[in-house]
């Protein structure tokens, strides 16, 4: 027996269990257990089971697992949310991740069960997970109102959480107008107009998305208006702007489609106009950034795209006349790239 075998391989054991912990989080979120616990002080498993309509024995085991995972506090009086659970896991918190968790449970989990096929075939697995083969992933998402709403809520929760970091990674105060291509619910756009009051922002997205954005808007007194325009960024005319934003858009597509989109932006961009990308940027050797590398697997199971390194983004941008490519690795979920049309 090698000497290393006398010590338990804790990292491997933790990875083997990783899916159990994820699923415990997903199920407690889906059953809105954290919502029931919010502001109610400690509750016993039987009270939560009665409120949610679940078995007492199953609920108790799930709550104990959540407490052991650090999501709940357990005392003799019962279970309560931690501060972080109140902020991120209840469905109505300002920075709630509930939308993304439900998307992970209902959409990404079934797709990841076909990771093996995705790796063997090198392509997305929507048809295996959901029995449909649409032209692209957004046709899959937008075929039903329920799936569309779930996807938009997921995008909104991450975009809202990361918006400030993206908006302030570079000083954007010199711009008067920006167009957020694929800007979805407008979460980043609203943060931009809050930080840069002289900036007007247009969100450009597919008609199915634009028709659904009202649900996600902040109340009018808290923010300057954002304009929403519907269209297809591969086919339609793009709005004029000094700054084009692509947040979590390029990672959805293969290089060929990125060339179509960047050449359209380049054609409408005047010299001096800039592009801002927000993506998880891989290190050049593709070995350090674990979250981004796992996100690239997430892209494999559901899109034609992938996560890319800073050099790969630079090469794509420079081919369309965008230079002075600056990359800010933020250490948060999204890194930011800025470049100028010369
Ligand atoms: N930018 C948002 C964010 O960071 O949360 C949303 C990112 S989401 C992964 C990609 C967005 O691109 C979706 O809102 C989708 O509807 C939009 N999109 C996809 N294809 C598009 C197209 N052909 N024209 C316009 N928007 C498109």
UniProtKB/TrEMBL annotation:
GO molecular function per UniProt: nucleoside triphosphate diphosphatase activity; O-methyltransferase activity; protein dimerization activity
Domain of life of the organism encoding this protein: Eukaryota
Domain O-methyltransferase C-terminal: from-to ranges: 113-322
Cofactor(s) of this protein: a divalent metal cation
Ranges of residues in domain O-methyltransferase dimerisation: 13-91
Signal peptide location: none
Keywords per UniProt: Hydrolase, Methyltransferase, S-adenosyl-L-methionine, Transferase
GO biological process: methylation
Assembly with partners or alone: Homodimer.
Name of the featured protein: Acetylserotonin O-methyltransferase like
Name of encoding gene: ASMTL
Residues of the full protein shown: 290 to 631 of 631
């Amino acid at each position: 027996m090698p000497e290393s075998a006398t010590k338990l391989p804790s990292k491997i054991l933790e990875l083997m269990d990783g899916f159990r912990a994820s699923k415990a989080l997903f199920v407690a979120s889906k059953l809105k257990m954290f919502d029931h616990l919010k502001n109610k002080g400690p509750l016993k498993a039987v009270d939560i089971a009665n409120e949610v309509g679940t078995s007492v024995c199953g609920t108790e085991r799930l709550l104990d697992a959540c407490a052991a995972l650090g999501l709940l506090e357990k005392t003799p009086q019962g279970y309560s949310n931690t501060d972080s659970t109140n902020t991120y896991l209840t469905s109505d918190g300002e920075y709630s991740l509930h939308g993304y968790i439900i998307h992970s449970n209902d959409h990404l989990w079934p797709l990841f069960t076909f990771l093996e096929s995705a790796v063997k075939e090198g392509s997305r697995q929507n048809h295996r997970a959901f029995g449909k083969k649409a032209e692209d992933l957004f046709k899959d998402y937008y075929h039903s109102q329920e799936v569309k709403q779930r996807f938009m809520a997921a995008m909104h929760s991450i975009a809202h959480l990361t918006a400030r970091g993206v908006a302030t990674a570079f000083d954007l105060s010199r711009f008067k107008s920006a167009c957020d291509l694929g800007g979805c619910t407008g979460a980043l756009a609203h943060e931009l107009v809050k930080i840069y009051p002289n900036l007007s922002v247009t969100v450009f997205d597919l008609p199915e998305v634009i028709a659904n954005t009202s649900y996600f808007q902040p109340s009018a007194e808290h923010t300057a208006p954002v304009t929403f325009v519907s269209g297809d960024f591969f086919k339609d005319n793009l709005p004029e702007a000094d700054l084009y934003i692509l947040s979590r858009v390029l990672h959805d597509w293969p290089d060929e489609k990125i060339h179509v989109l960047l050449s359209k932006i380049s054609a409408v961009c005047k010299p001096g106009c800039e592009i801002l990308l927000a993506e998880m940027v891989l290190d050049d050797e593709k070995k350090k950034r674990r979250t981004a590398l796992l996100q690239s697997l997430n892209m494999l199971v559901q899109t034609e795209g992938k996560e890319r390194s800073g050099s790969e983004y630079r090469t794509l941008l420079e081919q369309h006349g965008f230079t002075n490519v600056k990359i800010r690795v933020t250490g948060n979920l999204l890194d930011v790239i800025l470049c100028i049309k010369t």
